[in-house]
Amino acid sequence: MLGIIISVVGALISSAFTIAAAYYWSRSVALSLPVPALANFLATTLPLFTYLSLLLSLRPSKPSTRFLPIETLALLPGLDTILITLASSQLPGDALTCALDSRWRALFLAKNSRAIRSVQDRFECCGFVTAVDKAWPFPDREHGADACVLAFNRAKSCLTSWKKEERTVLAVMITVGAVSLVGKLLLFLLVRWRPQLFGEYAADIWQSRGRQDQRAERRMITGQDGVLETERLYFDEPAGEAVLAERASGDGEERGREIV
């Protein structure tokens, strides 16, 4: 029951964040925002990857399986960290203004009228810092720097509104990365404390780690390994341990008869 609840909640959360990230990815492209393409990709795909890993991990697995999908999540927190770093590095005011200025200047020098006009029409503004600063229509023999102001009767520049949109997109990315990272942490805790939810192999992993911790503790206390030969053997099937115990019992009886 708990596994079903986790699956449903994970599906709802991952779907919501994937849709939100995809929506703001489209907005950042439409408004030519200087958001790293890698950050857009990670923000959109990480929630889906996390949920698929969770779904595969909750699927019953055979004890003989040597690959637990939940272990793949050990690599994904690094991607979350990359996403958060990429997004947060542009949030400071000076860095954000510099990135926006570089992007607008590149669009203006390239005479990208479609991109600049999309921003101006979206926010009903003209130019970058001021209404006559690198605005579209571009200055030429027939148009002056104030062509946008005269043609559309706009006195507002685009910097403030464009910067606000950039901050919103970056905030969404940071939120997606943080929630994804916290979700993986909670998933790891579930594997640690409720390994039965993730199949028999997960339980075997933690039992094996527990035995290793006990052996390490014995070595620290006694200076010796203190491990029986039967403890050194690992069996995928419980029947294997039963066979070993039966053989050990039989050997003991035979030795007793020889002594008698």
Task: Produce a short descriptive summary.
This protein is mainly alpha-helical and 260 residues long.
Radius of gyration: 31 Å
* Structural class based on helices, strands and sheet pairing: mainly alpha
Model regions low in confidence, pLDDT < 50 over at least 5 residues:
63-68, 200-210, 225-237, 251-260
* Head-to-tail CA distance between termini: 58 Å
How many E strands?
0
How many distinct helices?
A: 10
Strand content: under 5%
Largest sheet: none
Helices and strands, in order, run as HHHHHHHHHH
Mean pLDDT: 75
Overall geometry comes to elongated
Helix fraction bin: over 70%
Task: Please give a structural write-up.
This protein has 260 residues and is mainly α. Helices cover 70% and strands 0% of the residues. The radius of gyration is 31 Å and the shape is elongated.
Task: Set out the fold topology.
Elements (H helix, E strand, L loop, with lengths): L1 H29 L6 H22 L17 H13 L4 H17 L3 H11 L23 H6 L6 H35 L6 H23 L6 H4 L5 H22 L1
Helix pairs in contact: 1-2, 1-7, 2-3, 2-7, 3-7
Comma- or semicolon-separated keywords:
elongated, 260 residues, mainly alpha, disordered C terminus
